[in-house]
Every structure is written in structure tokens, then in C-alpha cells.
Amino acid sequence: MSNEQRKVIYSAMQPSGVPSLGNYIGALKNWVNLQNDYDCVFAIANMHAITVRQEPAQLRKKTRDLLALFLAIGIDPEKNILYIQSDVTAHAQLNWILNCYTYVGELQRMTQFKDKSAKHEENINSGLLTYPVLMASDILLYKADLVPVGEDQRQHLEITRDIAERFNNLYGEVFKVPEGFIPKVGARIMGLQNPTRKMSKSESDNENNVIYLLDDLKVIANKIKRAVTDSDTEVRYSEDKPGISNLLNIYASVTDKTIEEAEADFKGANYGTFKSAVAEAVVERIRPIQEEFARISADKAYVDSVIEQGAQKAARIANKTLSKVKKKVGFPDRPGL
Ligand code: TRP
Description:
By secondary structure, this protein is mainly alpha-helical. It folds into two domains: 8-183 and 300-329, HUPs (Rossmann fold, 3-Layer(aba) Sandwich); 207-295, Tyrosyl-Transfer RNA Synthetase (Orthogonal Bundle). 54% of the residues lie in helices and 7% in strands. Strands 1-2-3 form a three-stranded parallel β-sheet. Helix 3 (56-73) crosses helix 12 and helix 9 (217-225) runs antiparallel to helix 12. The two termini are 37 Å apart. The site of tryptophan has 13 residues, from strand 1 and helix 7.
């Protein structure tokens, strides 16, 4: 495909903690594949992260670590745009403008706003409410065609489309209206202790429930060996066997096999043998990522240069869109100021 025909994919992740195996299989692993067929823009959404309280030094470190981890899993900063959201001031600027084209009522209806307000009763700040407008700004600045989002972000993509269409109806075709994108592969990984709910990094109540990409490899193996199964003995993919099915999904994803192939690998095997094999497969998948992460993180100058170049490449595109928007709403356009 020539560059002109390539579609633009935008995605971002908050630096709120080390990504889990669920984030890796459900999102990051796919991002690596997408870079061959699309123009990808990947952001570290640190502006979204401060809608809940963060410790500043920790946030700075987590932001950098997440970027280094993206590099470690194989995101190529030459092929893609990889940047830190707060480095590109256009996000905050477009955010303000779009706030004025978004209704409080529609923001209050967002399920994530309701959930987060319930969880952080002591800090229901305006940013929590306008969070989807910032997300819309991210996506629209880069004229993204496609946004790979999980179930939890689908509503935010819908409101992004609504805001874009509303603005376009007033001012002409300024924004590209993005579509959701569900990659062909990428299973939904569930918690190891609670396999009926998504493995999520926020769900930290039981530390054995979630595998983090930077966990010690021995810890990872142990978490898998402690995973909840069932009283049956057969390694079989089935709705009434959520624990075993989840482990099969994990195994298939990290070995790039189909579920059928994974089941065939464990025909007649007992749960103990199965879990050990899953643990080993996961460890072998994560080991090189951790080694790369350590190597890249130690190279401070390299990480700095990726951050710097990413910000510049991102700003060039974002500022072009912003400048168009400013003209449309009637602001004086002063490029270079
Ligand atoms: N809100 C997203 C999340 O928490 C992260 C995000 C920020 C994002 N901006 C985005 C995702 C734009 C997709 C597109 O998962």
C-alpha cells in the first residue's frame, strides 16, 4: 500500500500502572501488527491520568516506563508516531474548544464518569466529567480513521463521533469522523482469580488476579499456577469452564496458536501439567520483552530522543488541525506564536 492510501489508526494508554497481560494480549500485541498496514499514532495519555490523583514523581516515571515498554514490545518509533500527550499543547487547546460543543448532559450520561465518580467521591473534578472531550481531541487532531477500543471505551468513541459530526455540521468538513476498530485477533483476557471479569490493572484487590508485564518471571509463573479452574478434569474451551477457557485463551495468544490447536496440545493432560505449560509459554513470551525493556530504559539518551521526535512529529499534524479549527470558530490565526 502506498502511504497516501494508508488509514490512520489512533490509540492511547494511560500511564496509570504497568500494563497487564490482558492489556498486552487485548491491545498492545495488536498495535505491533497494525504498524505494518496503517499509519499509527500511539500516545501515552498522561493528561487523562491526572483526572485521578497521581504522585508527580511516580507519574513522570510511569509515563517514561510505559513509553519504553511500548518500544520493548516492538512499536517502531520510525514507522509510527509515538508520543507523550502533554508534550503536544494542541490537545489542551482543542479540548477547550470542543468543551464548548459538548453538552454537560451527554457527559453526565457516560458510564465511566458515573463509575469513576462513585469510586473517587472525594475528587469528582471537572476533568473526570470532560475526560471524553479530551479523548475526542486526541483522536480528531490526527484525523484518525480507526480507533481500536475495548468495550469500556466504546461510549467515548461514540461521543467523539457525535462531537465531530456536530462541529462539521456547523463549519463544514473539518474533522474526520472516526470508526471503531476491532482487530481480528486479540482475545479478551479475564482475571486469573475471577475469570468471569476482565483482567484489569485497576482491579488490584487480589494480586494473583492480574499478571503485570514487569512482574518477576517467577511471580508470573506462580500466579498462573494458582489460577482458578473447576472441579472437572478436562482441558476444554467452554462457556461453563471460564477458568480453563481463559488459560487456553492466554496460551493461544502468547504462542500465536488457535484455540483448537491449544486444546489439541493438552488432550488428555491434567490441570497441573496444563497450568505449567501455560506458565512456561507466558514466561517465554514476556522474558524478551523484559530484557528489551531493561536495555532500552538504561539508554536514557535514546528514550529522550524518541520522546523528542515523537512530540515534534505529533505536534506538526496536531497543530495543522488545530489551526483549521481556530479559523472556523473565529479565532485569529497566528502561526508560530
Ligand atoms: N481513555 C483511554 C483509556 O483509558 C485512553 C485514551 C486516551 C484513548 N485517549 C485516547 C484511547 C484516544 C483511544 C483513543 O483506555
